[in-house]
Amino acid sequence: MMDGSQPIALLVPTLYPWLKALHVIAVIAWMAGLLYLPRLFVYHCDAPAGSAQSETFKVMEWKLSRYIMRPAMLVTVGAGGLLVSLPGTPGYLPQAGAWLWLKLAFVAGLLVMHLLMVRWRDAFAKDRNPHPQRFFRIMNEVPTLLMIGIVVFVVVKPF
Ligand code: HEM
Questions:
Q1: Contact at 8 Å (CB) between 79 and 22?
Q2: Quick check: 48 and 55 in contact, CB under 8 A?
Q3: What are the Cα distances from residue 44, in Å, to 25, 68, 136, 144?
Q4: How far is the CA of 84 from the centre of ligand 1 (A)?
Q5: Tell me, what's the pLDDT at 1?
Q6: Which end of the chain lies in a sparser environment, N or C, as judged by fewer CB atoms within 10 Å?
Q7: Alpha carbon distance 54, 124 (integer Å)
Q8: Are 73 and 30 in contact (CB under 8 A)?
Q9: Burial class (CB in 10 A: 0-12, 13-18, 19+), 148
Q10: What confidence tens digit (pLDDT) does each residue in 76-108 have?
Q11: Chain-centre distance of CA 23, in angstroms?
């Protein structure tokens, strides 16, 4: 019985590794931004409002978040979304183990961190950052811990 899905099913074994490669490439770019932007905030705390150094940090923070982190996040989620919707593959959501749900919970944590960083970036841009340097040093560790959990869940698939 021809239901029209066969052509796609035939393509999946060829497509899947390429989709996963695109996914991991985007993940690397997104993680680079999630780890570097809080570091810029740490140094920005030392730059007096209105100073040339503070204005330079504003440009760096804007370009990193708008031109690298945002597109990388969208491709990570887009490719990931495709990966979970391909029947017969390890990541097919309806049949995946607890590892994928735990991974997605940690990914939700990274998305929240991304949105918070955009808010902190905007506060610096208006010279209205309320947080001390120590706050950003601690926040800098959160994406690292989430990333370690995500990679263990998706590579080891412990449960
Ligand atoms: C909504 C976001 C995401 C979704 C839906 C998603 C989904 C998936 C799926 C279904 C796979 C294929 C698993 C397999 O074939 O074994 C995969 C692979 C992978 N994902 Fe994600 N992912 C997302 C975000 C992330 C993030 C944020 C990271 C890292 C911080 C990440 C790291 C990886 C890695 C390293 C692989 C390759 C695993 C392997 O080949 O063994 N993913 N992802």
A1: yes
A2: no
A3: 29, 19, 10, 21
A4: 9
A5: 46
A6: N
A7: 9
A8: yes
A9: exposed
A10: 999 999 999 998 889 999 999 999 999 999 999
A11: 11
Name the percent of the chain lying above pLDDT 70. 95
pLDDT at 117 over 80: yes
- Rounded Cα gap, residues 116 and 103, in angstroms: 20
Tokens of 137: 């040093």
Q: Is 23 in the pocket of ligand 1 (CB under 6 A)?
A: yes
Residue 20: band (very low, low, confident or very high) from pLDDT cuts 50, 70, 90: very high
Burial grade of 92 (CB within 10 A; 0-12, 13-18, 19 or more): middle
CA–CA dist 44, 57 (Å, integer): 6
Q: Is 147's C-beta closer than 6 angstroms to any atom of ligand 1? A: yes
**What is the tens place of the pLDDT at every residue in 45-61?**
999 999 999 999 999 99
